[in-house]
Amino acid sequence: MPSQNFTENILVTGANGQLANEIKIIADHYPGYKFFFTTKEELPIENSEAVKSVFEKNKIDYCINCAAYTAVDKAESEKEKAFLINADAVGNLANICNTFQAKLIHISTDYVYDGSSNIPLKEDSKTGSVNIYGESKLKGEELTLEKNPSALIIRTSWVYSSFGNNFVKTMLRLFKEKTEISVVSDQYGSPTYAADLATTIMTFVERIQQGEEWSGIFNYCNEGIITWYQFAEEIKSLINSKCLINPIPTSSYKTTAKRPQYSVLDTSKIKQALQIPIPVWKESLKKCMEILDAV
User: Fold this and answer.
1) What are phi and psi for residue 107, nearest 5 degrees?
2) 86 in Cβ contact with 93 (< 8 Å)
């Protein structure tokens, strides 16, 4: 727990998203920090002057950038918008953080990889996205490190929480509405409970505040390698649903944007750096489902 004889200011962008909402939940556990949560309406990160104004007015020490264009399929027809928010705006944010000497923690994605691997992907594994969304996020990473080499980038995958729209909530809805569904069984990854990621980000913040220096790219996701079908089956078992789930190949589930076949993240770097355990995906899913059940 941070000491209370200092106050540092943390700007969290994309305040309506899953991750920012999870940071809101734990913010009270960090009394040495003052949090400023801004939605895309309150602070569109592509508006440089508006961002500068927030930094000047509030003397920001850390910026956790949760803002992103995340409509993967829509990005195929809205390339300009995806690149504006996920790349150009992020580069500007990195530049502004550098100018104001604020630490930038930027959230990226497993979609920066092309999915051709069959072993967990390290931070220095070859990148190359199979869709526009991934391309825009990769460009955002490149601009971040180019304009602000001290920035910290966290790549994550298959994010879900009790907030927003995500796979877990979609499955829960479908199990209520249908007696039979089909789910892709040949795409491999690792789910990430946004609450776990939020705590890890704040661990970085505390360590940096204590004088440790962290920069560059880190992977974070929960432990375990599964398919979307296995993910769905576990959700189903936790609520004792009778819905039949049919495993299908990617070729039978047409989407506008191509998805990577394999995007399992190797998290050994972050575990070693922070000396933290990472929860197994089933444990975290159970916690999230208990929260959803109580709603």
Assistant:
1) -95, 125
2) no
**H-helix or E-strand containing 206?**
helix 194-209
CA 145 distance to own-chain centroid: 18
Catalytic residue numbers, as ranges: 133
Domains and CATH numbers, the chain: 8-166+192-222+264-279 (3.40.50.720)
Task: Read off φ and ψ for residue 227, nearest 5 degrees.
Answer: -105, 170
Longest Cα separation, the chain = 58
Nearest to 117 by CA among 227, 261, 286, 249: 261
Structure tokens at 221: 């996701």
Q: What is the mean pLDDT of residues 228-254?
A: 97
Mean pLDDT of 110-133: 97
Q: Using CA atoms, how far apart are residues 73 and 196, in angstroms rounded to an integer?
A: 27
Q: Cβ distance 76 to 23 under 8 Å?
A: no
Helix axes 228-238, 281-294, angle to 10 degrees: 50
Phi, psi (deg, nearest 5) at residue 40: -65, -25
pTM: 0.96
State pLDDT tens for residues 34-66: 999 999 999 999 999 999 999 999 999 999 999
How far from chain centre, in Å, is Cα 136? 15
Average pLDDT score over residue span 91-112 = 98
From CA 36, how far away is CA 145, in angstroms rounded? 24
In the structure encoding, which two tokens stand for residue 36, read together? 């400023």
C-beta of residue 220 within 8 angstroms of C-beta of residue 192: yes
The span from the CA of 247 to the CA of 256, in Å, is: 20
Can you tell me the distance from the alpha carbon of 142 to that of 155, in angstroms, rounded to the nearest whole number? Answer: 13
Query: Chain centroid to CA 172: how far?
Result: 21
Ramachandran sector of residue 69 (left: φ over 0; alpha: ψ -120 to 50; beta: rest): beta
Angle made by CA atoms 127, 223, 259, in degrees to the nearest 5 = 40
